[in-house]
Amino acid sequence: MKYEDWKDKTAEFKKIDVRHLQGNFFLGLRKQAQNLEIGEGLEVIQTFEPHPLYAVLEPLGFVHHTEKTAVGEFHVYFYRAEIKEAGGQAPYAPLALLNYPMIDEELGEIAVNFWDLTWNNDKRTLSYEMRLLLSLANAVGAGRMRQASRELVKAYASGIDSAALDDVFELIAWNQGIGYFSSEIGPSALFQAYKLIKTQEKNGKSREEIKQLLMERFGEKNEEVGVS
Questions:
Q1: pTM
Q2: What is the b/e burial string over 157-178, where b = at least 16 CB atoms within 10 angstroms of the residue's CB?
Q3: What are the tens digits of pLDDT across the range 32-47?
Q4: CB–CB of 80/33 below 8 Å?
Q5: Residue limits of the DUF2249 domain (predicted)?
Q6: Is the four-CA dihedral 13, 14, 19, 22 of positive or negative sign?
Q7: CB within 8 A of 60, min separation 6: which ones?
């Protein structure tokens, strides 16, 4: 749907200024958006173009239009074009990006644009799922088990077969060594999430059921996985 088709309605949108807010406001915005009907919308004001917010609201049936009105001031209009089930939402909003504007607003804009270029740019050659697996492996190599756990859950939710995860863990054992794998990988949230997938698949659970279990046990409230 083109902006011209609904721009006359933007004056009625609820205005939400999230500039300089600290903490996780994604969940609050998403809850407000879920309560809107088709034809209603929100106007969000931020110091940088909020690419992560697009990823949060688009699966709910929202289209958006963005205007930069001044240095460090973006107005984004979200219009609900259809009602979509929230179940299709990808796991984990990129909450860690909210930390950078607290340090410096320009750094925040750079970080968000870098995230968007890395994960959303259609010029990427490798598939999204393949890049998640590479990111998982790189995170393990760098000792960032929190990131690795999140990438595993996102990869599985995106459709990666558990047999591909078998290959990834075999390569991790090969490259990191059996001793490191036994003492560091085995007890980690990363491997526990992998074991949950394998166990539940053997029990005949569907991918959606397993995805729900993963988010219940390895969501943002899990101290070994959350970043907020």
A1: 0.80
A2: beebeeeebeebbeebeeeeee
A3: 999 999 999 999 999 8
A4: yes
A5: 17-78
A6: negative
A7: 30, 33, 34, 80, 83, 84, 86, 89
